[in-house]
Structure formats: structure tokens, C-alpha cells
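User: Please predict the structure of the protein below. I'd like the answer in C-alpha cell form so I can feed it into my own downstream comparison script.

Assistant: Understood. Taking the following sequence of 126 residues as input:
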Amino acid sequence: MIIDCVILNYNDVETTLQWVDMAREYSVLSHIILVDNCSTDGSYERLQPLGSDRVVVLKSDRNKRYGYGNNVGIRYASEVHHADYILIANPDTKISVPCIEALLDSMTASPAAAVAAPIALKPDGA
């Protein structure tokens, strides 16, 4: 089963780097696809060295906002990796392996479902 994660970056390379450091070892994720949404701060150049077998770094051809940038990553995951599931996460979120597994369980238990989402909590758990 192929599970890819798309992370959209726009002028926030430090937060994106922290996210990749957190999730790079998550064996539940097949690939992490970083999409730079035409940042103006050199983010794309700083993200490029992260490229590997598991981390893909893309740059959108133009910044047409959040949906457009995520669609660049979704298309790549679908067309190149033939992903079974695609997780979309913002770089300022924290997501755990058990959370990803729970989302996957929800999706496989409901084959007609197209989307599953976790409940967002503040750092204090509230």
C-alpha cells in the first residue's frame, strides 16, 4: 500500500524542515512530497537537498494559493507513485504514526469514503 504525504511550503522553510525531520522516519509513509508554492525567500533552494528516494521536492509553476499548490503534489503522488492514499498536512501541524494509522483504518473501513480528517488539538491537548 502506498501512502504519500503532501506538504505545501510558502516562505516557511524552517517549519517545513522541522516537519520533514519529524516525519522522515515514519515507515507508514511511502513518500513525503514537498511542494514549494513559488516562495520568494529562497525556500525551494533550501528544500532541494532533502530530495531522496522518500522525499520529493517540487516547485509549483505559479502561486495560485493553497488548493493549487496541494494539487501539484496530489497529481505527482497519483501519477508518479500511484499512491493508494494521500495525506495533506500543513508544515505547522504535528501528526503521529498512530494518527495516520487511525485515518487509514477509517478509510479502509469505509470504502466509499473519499476523505478522513483527524481532530485538531492545541499543544496542551485541548
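That's the full C-alpha cell string. The helical segments are 13-23, 43-47, 65-79, 97-109.
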